[in-house]
Amino acid sequence: MKKGFSTSRILTLGIIVLVLLSALVARLWWVQISRGSYYTSRIKDRSQVTVRLPAVRGEIRDRNGLPLVENRTSVAVDFYLPDMVRAYRQKNGSVPLISYRASIYGMPRDKSEPDVPRIVEEVVLPDLEKLGIARDYNTRKMQIHYRTNTEVPYSYAEDLDFETLAKYMENSLSLPGVKVDVKPVRKYVYGAFASHILGYVGAPNDVDAEEAKKFNFYQPDVEGKAQIELTMNRFLKGTAGTRILQRNAKGVIEGEVGMVDPVSGANVYLTIDARIQYIAEQALRAVGRGAAVVVDPNNGDILAMASVPSFDPNTFIPSISAKDWAALDKAEADPLLNRAISAYAPGSTYKIPVALAGLRAGVGNNRYHCSGGVQYGDKYMRCWIADKNGSHGTLDLEGAIKNSCNAFFFQYANAAKIEPFVAMGNFLGLGRKTGIPLSGEAPGILPGPQWLAENKPLEKWSQGYTANVAIGQGFVLATPLQMAMVTATVANGGIDYEPRLVDKVVAQDGTVLLQEPAKIRASLIADAGLTPEQIEKVRHGMWEVVNEAGGTAGRARIKGIEVAGKTGTAQFFRDGQKDNHTWFICFAPYENPKYAVAVIVQGAKSGGGVAGPLAAKILQDTFDMEAGKKEIQLASLEPAKGSYQFIESVDFGREIPAVASAASDDETPTGDATDARLQQNSKPQKPPSIRPEPDAEGKAKNKPKAGLEKFFDNFKLPFLGGGKKKDKPEPEAKPRPARTPGGR
Fold this sequence. Notes:
Layout: H1 2-34, H2 36-47, E1 48-53, E2 60-61, E3 67-79, H3 81-92, E4 97-104, E5 107-114, H4 116-123, H5 125-131, H6 139-148, E6 154-157, H7 162-171, E7 178-188, H8 195-198, E8 201-202, H9 209-212, E9 217-218, E10 223-224, H10 227-231, H11 233-236, E11 241-247, E12 253-260, E13 267-270, H12 274-284, E14 290-295, E15 302-308, E16 320-321, H13 322-329, H14 351-361, E17 368-370, E18 373-376, E19 379-382, E20 393-395, H15 397-403, H16 406-416, H17 419-427, H18 449-455, H19 463-470, H20 480-491, E21 495-497, E22 502-506, E23 512-514, E24 520-523, H21 532-547, E25 564-570, E26 573-574, E27 577-578, E28 581-588, E29 595-602, H22 607-626, E30 690-691
Parallel strand pairs: 1-9, 2-13, 16-30
Antiparallel strand pairs: 1-11, 2-3, 3-6, 3-7, 4-5, 8-10, 11-12, 13-22, 14-15, 14-29, 17-20, 18-19, 21-24, 22-23, 25-28, 26-27, 28-29
């Protein structure tokens, strides 16, 4: 009985064991054979790391195809901080932690995370310092980067020189989480040239969280921060690629196993002629603060737009130090300010749209007497000639433009009333942005009763306000670009074009992605009801300003070229000191105009003595270039330095044709000075990528020596477009000095 029972139990146990073994074999078959390919792919996925590769940005070129912004290679060292944390944990079993205060659903909570700077200091820095290739860094910035941008590699060193690069390449495989990357970065070919048009780039302020989840490590594209780089960013940025890296069983990245190449962005062609831009920038360096705009009056193309002082966009590449940014941002003369699209009181140049408005209102044939001023209520408004104990006598419209007679325009404007001026300003695009693709353009102010009611409800419009508008003072504000377009409209006989700055956008395969033709905003004949004869009155008055005795811009004459123009000097005070804004607008040649120019100089005596000669210099050099008398060789420009030195006059030593008697080029401002609070200044709208100063904890003990020549600065890799044959040789740009490797 006992023996049988024992046999039965053994048999039952054997069956159970057999069933369990069968189940185990079946499971092994299911996992290893039936589902083998699935789990193999899972293992492969876990052993591979995907890295997002930013695309190469498209170039920015002038109207003739000359590259103004290209790309160069930058060799950088990136820290893959999660890999460093992983390596530390594998070696030591745990990682050091730090505590920090965070807001969870609006409630403060204590949280902990790996002490990344300590891990870096223990895992990586000893080897880097031993090799003499360590850099200073900011430990707080690194910790915050790990907390908020875990998937984005931390940029430890940028723009490596060849010697440092060689040391990294020899030793980087033994350093966990350290990766040497070759990246495309911006190169502004001619330094500070056209900096207020081109702008600059930097790291994005926000990472696309959804896209970042698709990659183990996310290298974001740089983005435009200002001007064309910002407004045309969608075309310039291109399409990102992917790099696939292999990780071994210990979690260490061994090498690259795959690549999806990024697609370069499109090239943006500007309407700017780099030669005319160069002429304008060189001329403006005669003053400390100012701007010049040159447009084609036959289509509205902007041929040049210069502003001084200026800055070098290369300073922002790959990032700008906190110290350099503070110096640039707080510089007294404000080199970041684009004065060409900032708004100022236009002074007597505003008499041109006022003249057109009076013609439309039916007072264009009236004559008014100047005895030195006009009384409005309890205020006597003086003409500038009264300061010289003189008067202009009785004048018609053309004579009033030639002499820039304030007294005439006081009476002329009040006879027409304010409404026609507001209407004419609307036709000419005053008081609103032109819409050109530049960041921070000011709209200016086109004042009238409605504007006053909205902005100063306790005040009532008066004849004194109308008189101030007539001479471009008081509440009136306009940008040099707006005044250049007003000039172009008069020059071509009444067609008001929209200004164009971008000519076309072309993809790398030659496809034209964007090209808009010249657009007409208004016709002063068809829309405003003026006649060609009326517009010619204003044109001829501007001709007399430059070419007849007594005109206020005799120093703007050019031998062999008939120039027509208008001076302006607006009262302005800065910190209680006189800081006049002097203007000159002009076009040439008179019969078949090719160029319209607007120049403003801050802190000068008069439009005729300072702004006029500047505009004439720009025109003369441009015409000489066209005639083959002057060759323009573009070269890299250092930033134009700003100053508050008061400019009495400007003299380029040009040969100025004489008239019967000397012209009066010292018109002095009158009327109510512009309130400084009304000025509208155009500055970059997005903060740049600022490289923080190293802190005490991030000081490297054995740093590389400074001054080594960059190996890659002017060397283009194939993915940057190297090896392509140029249609014509490019001007040599002055090489940029090597960055001091000592600080990040």
